[in-house]
Amino acid sequence: MPRRLAWFIGMVLVCSLVSPILLPVRHAHAIGWQGLILYFPQTGHHLSGEFLWAWISNGGVMTFGYPITEPFTQDGMVVQYFERARFEYHPQNSGTRYAVLATLLGSWLTETRRNEPAFRPIVADNPAALNSDPERRYFPETGHTLAYGFKAYWEANGGLYTFGYPISEEFTERNPDTGEFYTVQYFERARFEYHPENKGTPFEVLLGRLGAQYAQARGVDTRPVPMRPDAIEVPAQLLDYRWSRAVATDDGAIFGRVTAPTLAIRNAPSNSAPAVAWTYARHPVPIRGLTLGDPVEGNPIWYELGDGRYVAAAWVEPLVPDIPPRRFGGRWVDVSLRSFYAVAYDGDRPVYVAIITAGRDGKTPVGVFQIFYRVRNETMDAATVGIPPGSPGYYYLTNVQFTQYFKSGGYALHGNYWTPPAQFGGFTSNGCVGLMNSDAEWFWNFLHIGSTVSIHY
Predict the structure, then answer these.
(1) Dist. CA 245–CA 320, nearest whole Å
(2) Which of 80, 281, 362, 430 is the most exposed place for a label (fewest CB within 10 A)?
(3) 303 with 267: CB under 8 angstroms?
(4) Cellular component terms, GO, for this chain's entry (predicted)?
(5) Same domain as 451, residue 335
(6) Residue 360: helix, strand or coil by DSSP?
(7) pLDDT of res. 95
(8) How many domains does the chain divide into?
(9) Could you read off the pLDDT of 350-372 as tens digits, one per residue?
(10) Which residues contact 340 (CB under 8 A, 6 or more apart)?
(11) Would you name the residues annotated as active-site residues?
(12) How far is CA 175 from the centre of its chain?
């Protein structure tokens, strides 16, 4: 979540066993988001400001759980505890990716257990051999492996940037809250638990309540407090577990997906504000902050998209991409002909998503390809791929932007200005992967000759 927080490096804490870890950068905010105060009746605590944005933009309740304290000063800094984490505020880093930090609670909890068999690093003479199984991955940084269900969960919910490296192998351990035994694995910031009773659901893997354990160990008061008069109860949309899997960008946004057939993008968080643009069902929208506005379907929260543009949160849900059938190193793109999204990856981490058009009648090729030729602005003439003028399927298009060819025969990623935006998300092309020009430009700047393009249903 990678998703998809970017956190502090090198701070010396009062508690020497605890140090922070970097999480993904998501720090751009709406103008009015700092005045938004949410109350969680589940635990009786509030969430606001930098901590609120860090929470929602990096996984929300699925990753961090509910807040279990108010913000207070500890170890010389403002902190707030959650069921599975502790957040730290560093004002000296305000306006950067390091304003909110997390504590390495997995490392703290297991500090005295490093000689146990599961925590001993695996010494690999040939790390590549350990990585030859696509269902298993070896991390030389800590000497541990990640496999099967835990690997899939780690990759889908933020990976390195959310949980850190594995610091143990899988083993069986008693859950301190329930007394039940589960297969677990520890990471720098988390404990994964496998729950077979939830098999086939999003809750097959659950995270340990390390924040609650740390709070108890330090004698922190977690009793509920009354709801403040200037707060609102957290809307159900923000408790959607899928936020932990939503695509997040390097420049501070997290992607939602439009659920209304047509949605106005307004210049203020008001139903009466002028519409500056329109977006459509299943289209991605980059959320850069939260603010209060006119209630829509009972929800007063609006999402800020940047440049003074707002959409009602009631009509936006987390955009969770399909799990790629394969993953690749470096910068690459995964194109799903089932969901009609092109997702840009930087290694394991999805960093951008765009809605596409694809080829009618199975004309878009399926497979793994590499970009071999790029044209910034060109004229596309079907005659060059064997379709003469006057024939069915002939086309002649000028000023086609940001074309990146990945297969001979004229197959490319490129801007598509002739298809109305409302018709994106379907089979409308002659075989290319069409993008709106703004998205095509983004992919042009992200990819290069040799970048992998993986296309599948």
Answers:
(1) 6
(2) 362
(3) no
(4) extracellular region
(5) yes
(6) helix
(7) 74
(8) 3
(9) 999 999 999 998 999 999 999 99
(10) 282, 355, 356, 357, 358, 424, 425, 426
(11) 414, 432
(12) 28
